């Protein structure tokens, strides 16, 4: 790692944030450019001019973070005109017909006129994928007409495949929800077109491709089969595989777990802890796959794993646990936004159960205690409507320890809003520059 040259124009924004070009070799920096990248670092360390990777951004954050939380969708999303509640995918208010878009930095809905909105002196435009349901806005200085979420989609169905594009719209909606949650948690997202291991999505339809599309993750790229947005396809698979829960959002959370395992675990100590809990991920994946589909999960798997699939290989155990962590804290956050509160007399506890917007300063015990009460309540509500349980899983003591490990990784040092925005707005440069 080369030290910073004196001539380097990397800019110190505050004691722990420096703006530096992502692939800076000479130290030349476009200081005023909004496409410079922000890397959190220690006050005295400045930063070496080096490639920015998700892991390195995370390392730097861990060293220097004050732990301040990034931006959150902390309150109920509302129509900017009539203030009624709206869902995150709303394009037009059902009450007052105001056209709206989501300004993703402050996480607020704003009214749209002629495809644009001015927020605090900055013009935001509707995403070029709005006709396919994307309601995110694009800042005036963005390099393309696609929003951050749509930009992360590396591969998509061709423009004339309208059937597949309709399925893409459903999947993109789940993807935006995932990205908002990752942002709320302060997790680093370096786009695939900034760094070769960065996060990206190949969204393909097995129906259109005429071949099987395998859902998975490889080197930052998450592949999703758009056919799974069809209820009959997904439900048939769920039944055939004997799974209690199968959703597109669940796939996205699981696959993002593969991505973040390599991003968040950065040293030998953490890897040793991880192997202690999940097993050695260096074991043959192919052998594990063959074994899993020949013999299934071992008897008594519920005592140690969150799902049958988690038994397949340590990679899958971590990804499943990570997905469940996102299920749990995401749903608790929604419960907090709704204003839910379980009275102590109803739960037979000493105190009311009050879900939190975030749990970054709380032990995993508090998270799981709240979740135990809330998920039981949600399951009862679902059953009263004749539906399957909302959360059809049992969290055993070993799974609690795995979730504690993920909680520690995620909450160690969340990136601030500025840091996340800068990573998101990093320039598109050739990875091999
Ligand atoms: Zn309205
Ligand atoms: Zn978009
Ligand atoms: Zn997996």
From TrEMBL:
Originating organism: Microbacterium dextranolyticum
Source species, domain of life: Bacteria
Domain Zinc-ribbon stretches: 78-159
A Pfam cross-reference name: Peptidase_Mx
Protein's name in the database: Zinc-ribbon domain-containing protein
